[in-house]
Amino acid sequence: MKVPRIIALARKEWREILRDRLFFTLAFVVPASLMLIFGYGLTLDVEHIPFAVVDHDKSAMSRDYLHRYIDSRYFDYQGDVASEREIEPLLADSRIRLAIVIPPRFQENLISGRAVAVQTLIDGTFPFRSSSSKGYVVAINAAFNGELLGNYISRRLGVPAQTAKALAQPVAVQLRYLYNQEVKSVWTIAPVLMMFVLMITPPFLTALGVVREKENGSIYNIYASTVTRGEFLIGKLTPYVGISVINFLALWLMAAGLFGAPFKGNPLFFFLASVIYVTCTTGIGLLVSLFVRTQVAAMMLTVIVTIVPSVLYSGLLVPIASMDPAGQFEAHLFPAMYYADIVLGSFLKGIGLEQLWGKVLALLIYAVVLWTASFLMFHKRPKS
Amino acid sequence: MNVRSEESRARLQLWWTRLATMTVKELIQFGRDTLLLLAIVYLFVFDTYMAGNVSMQLNHAVVVVHDADHSAASRELVYRFRPPYFKLGGEVLDNREGQRLLDRGQALVVLDIPPDFEHDIRKGKPVDVQVQVDASNTVLGFLASSYAAQIIGQYGFDQALARLGVTERSMQNVPMIRDEHRVWYNPNQKDAWFMPIAELLTVITIMAIMLPAAAAVREKERGTIEQLLVSPLTPIQILLPKVIAMTLVILLGTAVSLFFVLHGIFDVPMKGSLALFFAVTTLYTFTTAGLGLYIATLSRNLAQAALLAILILMPMIFLSGAWTPPEAMPAGMREAMLLSPLYHFIEMGYGILLKGAGLDVLWDSLLGLALLGIVIFGFGVWRFKRQFG
Description:
Number of strands of chain A: 5
Helix content of chain B: 55-70%
Number of helices of chain B: 14
Shape of chain B: elongated
Order of helices and strands of chain B: HHEHEHEHEHEHHHHHHHH
Radius of gyration of chain A: 29 Å
Structural class of chain A: alpha/beta
Largest sheet of chain B: 4 strands, mixed
Number of helices of chain A: 15
Largest interface: A-B, 139 and 133 residues
Oligomer: heterodimer
Number of strands of chain B: 5
Number of domains of chain B: 2
Shape of chain A: elongated
């Protein structure tokens, strides 16, 4: 392996990239724009759930109860409807996602000490959203019940309201959110997006760059030359790794500067771990490019191995802990998951090599396997 | 006059024959790329299948307990942290150990029960239970904390009722609200009914943009477009067959995925009209194919086309309303979503399949998609014609 040859190849590739103005611009514009759009637009919080009300009671108490929904930032009041029959078309048209039905004699029953059933109808099309909405309903009911029970105890036992309240709610919860005290979702999303963007763009750049030579036939120049396999692969890919590292630095700046996510970890550790990750994802593109002969196929295969797993198996949308064993196994096959832990650990938790060495090692093994496989699969004498 | 109508009919017939021949040519060319075919089968079949096995909800989050009381009462509270939401990950002896597990991501929640927990509850003295949640992933952290608060709240409520001597039977005579929620359209809130549909619609989007773009750019890159341009074909006859061929492929894939994977494996109900669903899918692929053609006119090679496609695809997929609730979007973004064809497609796809909605309900989404389709496809064709006309 001769270094001057590698440098020459890398310079040739770099010049080729540089001459394709649009490609060169997009190589930097795409990652940054994805970060911008998602950083501002990707809200996973379930809020402002539009809901309608059927109030058969129309009493002071039912209004008080309903105002707990109306005043909450989780719900968005869309108005009253006269009967249950009017709810269905609203739910079907997604004008509302939830409806509350207050039964007749709501106030009368509660005051005379009887339980009442309040019905909530929830649109279950998006299970994640419906279970969150259900959680909010349960919480509002629990708070209301606590008050009702307090009043009831105070009347039955004849104790002052304060004591009754303590009796009604004997256990209080003290919640502490670690690492992200204010639960700002952009603090999570911005770092995780780095993982996401660096999972998608480097493989596309690389796979298309290599297959282009194959499809154009210019790769025969390499086949016929004295350049060895290893020299070709390293020389060819160095510029792409370089572009991805620059992109990584830009994304880092955006996540910390623009979106304000606190970086508590060790910058050097994070930088090195990220270079390994980028080498990994570039390697994915390389491996894809060796399987296919046409750029269209390269494009589709890259979609399969990058976009799909980074949506489903990276932990961005779907928590890995809650997958079934098959899903967890698949998640462990892609590098995205390990890097997500490294990014969040470095940004929010402020942990370093001591706790994250396992993930870094996994990425390192991943990179070595990918590059070795590519080296073994690349032949200067293709079969057909 | 008769001659003239005869002539125009012959011309029309020729036009259609040419269109059909070109469509066949595109299909043959497409079928020769075995790996591409495999990739497409994979996306429509295995990918939608895999999506059915993941869930966006909190399942089996690991809870570790620091129990300083070790009483019957504290044990009862701890045992309420059960699957599906939580899973007990054992006990820690001090808070440092708990912190370490949170740092490493081996636990999501640390539950801290104070000494004299049981004693204080018996006495009617208020007790604080501390819950520490890893909020580095805000969605998980938020869900975990709200479920934990629910469990502990219910526990306290039950304790209070028990003190009052209220039994299960006399519950009816305590003034309280019984929560009766019913979930419609997906009563068991199966993610397997949601995720595969979302994935299928995503796959359709990816293909509808990338395949026509690729088919057009390839001709440009290889120079075969020149051959087509010197032939008697009009630009429309070059471009439309590409879109038609890819739409046929996508419709076939959609049918396979819908009948065998979604309905066959996951029992996703197909409540509404399937004819409507396929009609909407066709309209949608044409609309997004317009975006693909636009990309094709902008780029000179496939590498450029792929990057441009990602730039358009990813925001479309993520801001479509399937992953992020449109209601919670910041103002401006919500309006921008209305411009995304996928937003309307998702609304209709779920509406038809899960809700059984028909045109009477979905007409506004359909109108939105049709308008977008005319504008986008028209623009794509216009650019193509201008470049090659």
